[in-house]
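Note to self: the last two entries modelled the partners one at a time, which told us nothing about the interface. This time every component goes in together.
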Amino acid sequence: MKRIITILILAFTLALNAQSNFEKGMQKAFKLWEDNKLNEAEQFFERIAAAEPDEWLPNYYVAQINSIKSWNENDLEVVNAQLTKAQDYLNNAMAISKDNYNILVMQAQIYTNWIALDGRTYGMKYSAKVTELYNQAYALAPVNPMVILSRADWNMGSARYFGQDTKPFCKDVEKALALFEDFKPELFHPNWGRRRAAEILESCNK
Amino acid sequence: MLSIPLMAQTIISGIVTDIKGLPIAGANIYLQGTYDGSTSNDSGQFYFSTDETGDKTLIVSFLSFETFELTTQVTVMNKLEIKLREDVNTIDAVILSAGTFSAGDNSKVSVLKALDVVTTASALGDFVGALQTLPGTTTVAEDGRLFVRGGEAEETQIFIDGIRVFTPYSPTTNNIPTRGRYSPFLFDGITFSTGGYSAEYGQALSSVLLLNTIDEPDQNKTDIGIMSVGATLGNTQKWNKSSLSVNASYTNLAPYLLLFEDRNDWQKPFEGASGELVFRQKFNSGLLKLYAAFDATNFELIQEDINIVEGVKFKLNNNNLYFNGSYKGVLSDNWSMSSGLSYTYANNKLGIIDNAIDNTENSFHAKVVFKRRFNNRFKLNVGTEYFATKFNELFESSAIQQTPLRFDNNISAVFTEADLVFSKKMAMKAGIRAEYSEIFKQFTVAPRISIAYKTDKNSQISLAYGDFFQQPNNDILKFNQDLESQQTSHYILNYQYNWDGMIFRAEAYFKDYQHLVKFNTDFPAFNSEFNNLGDGYSKGIDLFWRDNKSVKNLDYWVSYSYLDTERDYRNFPSAAVPSFVNNHNFSVVGKYWIDSFKSQVGLSYAYATGRTYTNPNEVGFLNATTKPFNNLSLNWAYLLSPQKILYFSVNNALGTRNINGYQYSDTPDVNGNFNRRALRPAADQFFFIGFFWTISEKGTDNQLNNL
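The predicted structure of the combined assembly is written out below.
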């Protein structure tokens, strides 16, 4: 009996320990990111992703960091490798968490990066998909400010390309900005876009 | 007791370099399943401590390199020297390019993008038309099919999702070019190989065209097209794991011919109706695709003929059904499989003068391929396939009632192929294909090999060799089945240079034809004597240049082919240059996007030297050459809104009066001269206007990629 209790306690402690390990790990990774150590943060997320096969968040952040890194990269081959890596990790995240609007938005952003890289090749292939992804995400989370903002941002880009009025989407950005006020995502969940929303709204009011 | 091992810390250290020993900075080193790890510094060194004990797996990963794994006692993981191998699957790795043009997204590999296939001015929405702007093809404007490197059109085989299409072209008659039967709407991957292709493909002497249907459509939508020659309607529905696309089109040339009369005397202008359907179902580890196409065409006309004053009356009714089902799936970590089958039913009812011909072909193809991936550098394919054809023809005329012509043609084949990647610089594909033909009781073995070597960052050379077998076509087999397979060997040397949006390819080849079918009458007939004693050769150089970067919004490509070929086959008295051959082919395609007008304007120009014909007024066979061929085509696509496109095109804008050949009178006139008639296209020019509208919930998709 004593033995069983010991094992139970041990198992429980280990479980708690694993939980806090994940939290500690994520905190450390975010700290590295805040300190602008982007590569170290990315690698830390990779380690967490490898150690925690049921967590989509570390996979999501590896994808996001690679997506962000590709913006400032000029070497086509490196961009290609980065976006491929982003896609690989996002695929992992997708396999862990189904119908996740955060992942759908990130997928749309990775496709948008491909379009930005080579519009002639990827524009036709991905632009309809991006629209579809934002619509799916919106159906899942109609009051999430990140979803509303990203969708409006994309729609404004499309409208601008076709010489149409971008104003109708300004009210979406406004709405997103208002929703950001009370936006409290779960621990470690994606939380970005306030600055972008403010920027867009500023251009709307010009 | 428990806490002691937990507290003990082990130091893990080492250095990460590439194969040459140069340090790799920024590599990620960690113990699998833990958070313990570090990043290598500028000199490749790393150092970290861990509480773990016993056997653990150390992972070392870095972008564009293969991930390294080491499983051992953590206590011995110090002063490690880790060499990472380059990832051979990256975009800058060598590719096997001899003979192959791929249209896809991988900008490094593809020469044409899927979109190009349908935005080429001279193509009029037919993807075969777009491929005719690539080097290695010859200009046979009145035919419309692909003639590759001195080969006849039938030497090119078309495959959809890996499965053969037995009757890819709409049937037509002399001097009216045919079109590919299948709409470009439904395909997203096109590979056109002009030689040296994989052992997976057989029964093609010269070339294969591989078309892949779209795996997953983007969204629910309806496409409407209204054209000067007919209308199309398409609809796509998406569900969670499956999707369905249907596409129907109707073509009628009557209104057009009222406005622009051509040289034929149409009794009943060309009319065609076709429907296509693609259904896709995703499973946990595989994808099932079903593709079905039906089309019916009919027309009736009287064509001029120098020997028949009242002209030749020609009538055609064709019904064609094609069904193709394929499944691709993953079996385990290292095994995957693809399989498929197709069924073709083709019926042609022809009336020529007062003769009636009614023929039916039923064909079946089944194939299964297993793929074993040993690692990134070694993959092996093994497959088997079976082709069965039943052909039946009835011929009736006022004079004779012929006994039906029929034959069964069954072929079984096995093939295997290995893909070896030695390094990022060198790769090889080697395969072998064995076929057994029941009709000829003949067994053939065809080796194929291709090697590529990257000479520097932007260029590579490839070599390919292969043997190819193909049976004579139905027009011969229906009269005689006591023959054997025709054969070619291909030798190809390819050089490719890629540089930021520019691509240059040069390819030299030699083809050796053996066992071509010969006969001793004007056309294959009952009374012909057939044998396999024909032969021939073909050699040449193909050049290709494409650039979409130098001038903003301009994308263009230039192709040039030099072809030297002679063959002694059919009823040739000796080796000669066949009449479908041009020695020099040159073509330019340009597309320019004008942002302020939301328009894409396109141009394509083709020049080909003359083709041979026999002038009976002089001694010899195929002893004369026509004047060169010229064609300048223009198109303009205008985006009215993101979903509405207006499209104009004009084929042969300059109205050049091209001559495809001559027909001579059977008997000389009073002066002893054989008179002739120039074979000219039915119309010198062709105009096309279309309006395309996509209705989707999202409002951003359009049919620009369908034009």
